[in-house]
Write a structure and sequence with these properties.
The chain is mainly β. It has a domain of about 130 residues: Sandwich (Immunoglobulin-like). It is about 10% helix and about 35% strand. It is built from 1 helix and 10 strands. The strands form 2 sheets. Strands 1, 2, 3, 5, 6 and 9 form a 6-stranded antiparallel sheet that branches. Strands 4, 7, 8 and 10 form a 4-stranded mixed sheet that branches.
Length: about 190
């Protein structure tokens, strides 16, 4: 008996491999799906405030001649309005007086701001840009006169919570009467540079 051997052609197998390879190169493995989402959030703010717990004091000795002792008033300024509108600090005062029926007084121009420092108190801050110059007289009278600006935060600055510390010098001439003097200082924060 003769055996007939069937010859297999490699062509169908080669075509199947090529088709599989072509599909693998052009078709991504498995079906990939993507989605996009939009995240939204609300940021709110509303506070422009000023606070202090300072009880400043100074002392002068008439034996040492004319003097200008200083005191500081640490202030906490918070601008978390989120507007970037800027703000101003203002000051006014009553005249330094010993009080009583016939008080001894220091001059109405005895007090002057000699400088102001500011530092971020908490969190992240945009430091204030201050355009005020020093020294600057603190207005005074028996009844506190109109306040004057002594520190400002330009628009787009001063956002956050700060410790702002003005230094105030008080001129005490050697010819002053000895005694315990006091003055009421009023400091305020107002919107706008």
């Amino acid at each position: 008996m003769s055996r007939v051997r069937a010859i297999r052609s490699p062509l169908p197998r080669l075509l199947a491999v090529c088709a599989a390879l072509l599909c693998a190169l052009s078709c991504p493995p498995g079906a990939a799906h993507a989605a996009s989402v939009t995240a939204t959030g609300t940021v709110s703010g509303s506070t422009l405030s000023l606070a202090t717990s300072a009880t400043p004091t100074f002392s002068a000795s008439l034996d040492s001649g004319d003097q200008t002792p200083t005191y500081t008033i640490p202030l906490t300024v918070q601008d978390t309005r989120g507007t970037g509108a800027g703000w101003n600090l203002t000051v006014t005062s009553t005249t330094f007086s010993t009080g009583g029926g016939t008080p001894n007084l220091l001059a109405t121009n005895a007090s002057a701001l000699t400088g102001v420092t500011s530092a971020c108190a908490t969190g992240t801050c945009t430091n204030p840009t201050n355009a005020q110059t020093y020294p600057s007289t603190v207005p005074a009278a028996a009844t506190a006169p109109a306040a004057v600006k002594f520190f400002n935060s330009a628009a787009g600055t001063g956002m956050g919570k700060f410790t702002v510390t003005p230094t105030i010098g008080v001129f005490v001439p050697q010819s002053s009467f000895a005694g315990s003097y006091s003055s009421t200082l009023t400091v305020a924060v107002v919107t706008g540079p």
